[in-house]
Specification:
The protein is built from 6 helices and 19 strands. By secondary structure, the chain is an alpha+beta fold. The N terminus is likely disordered.
Length: 240
């Protein structure tokens, strides 16, 4: 970004800095929270990176080296940085020299794999369910897993509150009250809603894989850097 002859749209620049996705950047710009040389930025504005660009009054540093982490989110930890009532945020558990943010949510009552990065383009692709990348979960319910429940997940379930039928999901019984579920979309609290529609309640929900990245042997609250091979494959899977 140091080449003053190279101009890029400000939403792309903010994403490259790891501040947020392009879509979120557009919202921040509309709200007047992004300033360029002291003046409110406008949608479509182009920058070189040599300007003074600030977010809520804090000057934004230029793009840092790309960082990609796999993190085991424990139950009770909130992903979003915007929840003022959260007891614990992911940012409080991550001690890493490069600022990273989440690429895909996981609700407070669930645990497992969260990808953290400052690669804005990757965040944008992972947050869009239309890309169809897989997310794998281990799910515990309060009753026995039946063939009817498995069949319903595989066929797709109509969720009245969202007025949408879920895409067919991979599902298999792995214990009396446990099943493995693979989703290719990311509706809000999707698995919990699907289970409720089947007349059962989720007692345990753990994400163990996102695309090609596996939780592996990470312990709760731990993180690791992705390997170069994992990063290349992940970017291929989301068409980057």
């Amino acid at each position: 970004m140091s080449d003053s002859s190279e101009e890029i749209r400000i939403n792309k620049y903010l994403a490259a800095c790891g501040i947020c996705s392009r879509r979120e950047a557009d919202r921040l710009i509309e709200e007047g929270r992004i300033l360029v040389n002291g003046e409110p930025a406008v949608s479509g504005y182009k920058v070189t990176g040599n300007e003074e660009i600030s977010f809520d009054g804090d000057v934004i540093k230029g793009p840092e080296r790309k960082a990609y982490l796999a993190f085991y989110k424990p139950v009770g930890v909130t992903v979003s940085e915007k929840d003022e009532h959260a007891e614990t945020l992911i940012s409080e558990l991550i001690d890493y020299p490069v600022r990273v943010t989440y690429a895909g949510r996981l609700d407070k009552d669930s645990e497992g794999l969260i990808l953290l990065t400052n690669d804005g383009e990757l965040i944008n692709r992972l947050m869009r369910g239309a890309n169809g990348h897989e997310k794998e979960y281990i799910v515990g319910i309060d009753r026995e897993v039946t063939e009817e429940i498995i069949a319903a997940f595989e066929k797709g379930i109509y969720l009245k509150e969202l007025k949408i039928k879920t895409k067919p999901a991979g599902a298999e019984k792995i214990g009396k009250r446990r099943m493995r579920v693979v989703l290719t979309q990311g509706l809000n609290r999707q698995i919990r809603r699907m289970c409720e529609a089947c007349g059962v309640r989720v007692t345990f929900l753990k994400r163990v894989r996102v695309a090609n990245i596996k939780l592996g042997d990470l312990s709760e609250g731990e993180y690791r850097e992705l390997t170069k091979e994992e990063i290349l494959e992940l970017r291929r899977e989301v068409n980057l």
